[in-house]
Amino acid sequence: MSVATKHGLILEIDTKAVSDDGLFSGYASTFDVLDSHKEIVAAGAFTKSLASRPANKVKMLRGHDQSDPIGIWESLSEDARGLKATGRLILDTAKGRETHTLLKAGALDGLSIGFRTVRDRLDKTKGARILEEVDLWEISVVTFPSNAQSTVTAVKSTSFSELVAAINSARTSLKG
């Protein structure tokens, strides 16, 4: 499935790759992209953090909500494009099941990083803060990522009835 972003970028989403056990992958951050916070993550910004904190110690959250983790990250690595992340939702939790259903349906597909800045600089020509080194604390599944290219790239499709059930479940949990 192809998805067009507001910046005209076309992203290809594999609609067969989130497994029934909650495994999914994507890019939590991409390098050299100006995000909505006027920040650009430089290549190599995660190197020291990934060396000192294993993937399973970087929290997986939904919408940066620290009170309700939804899974665990199984692998995090930098490649030429950015920070590649593979994680597994904990399907024994309501939020994990709900997130899984929404990911499979394509209703939720953004990723966003939570971090502490270690080293940065201002690039006046780009009007942006360049993040040269960050201490990665968490990666969230989000509706609208700050970096339009930070998305889930492996998503399994689902039926319309499962999508309706997920939306109704989300609505119920928001009311409660």
- Give Rg in angstroms: 16 Å
Order of helices and strands: EEEEHEEEHEEEH
Average pLDDT value?
Answer: 85
- Describe the sheet with the most strands: 8 strands, mixed
Number of strands: 10
Strand content: 35-45%
Architecture overview:
- It is a single chain.
- The chain is α+β, with helices and mostly antiparallel strands.
- It is 19% helix and 39% strand.
- It contains three helices and ten strands, in the order ββββαβββαβββα.
- Strands 3, 4, 5, 6, 7, 8, 9 and 10 form an eight-stranded mixed β-sheet that branches. A two-stranded antiparallel ribbon has the order 1-2.
- Helix 2 packs across helix 3.
- The chain is globular and about 45 Å long.
Helices and strands in order, then pairings?
Elements: E1 2-4, E2 10-12, E3 23-30, E4 39-41, H1 47-52, E5 59-62, E6 71-78, E7 82-89, H2 94-105, E8 110-123, E9 128-142, E10 152-154, H3 160-175
Parallel strand pairs: 4-9, 5-9
Antiparallel strand pairs: 1-2, 3-7, 3-10, 5-6, 6-7, 8-9
Helix pairs in contact: 2-3
Keywords:
single chain; 176 residues; alpha+beta; 3 helices; disordered N terminus; two-stranded antiparallel ribbon; 8-stranded mixed beta sheet; 39% strand; 10 strands
Summed up:
The chain has 176 residues and is of the alpha+beta class. The protein contains 3 helices and 10 strands.
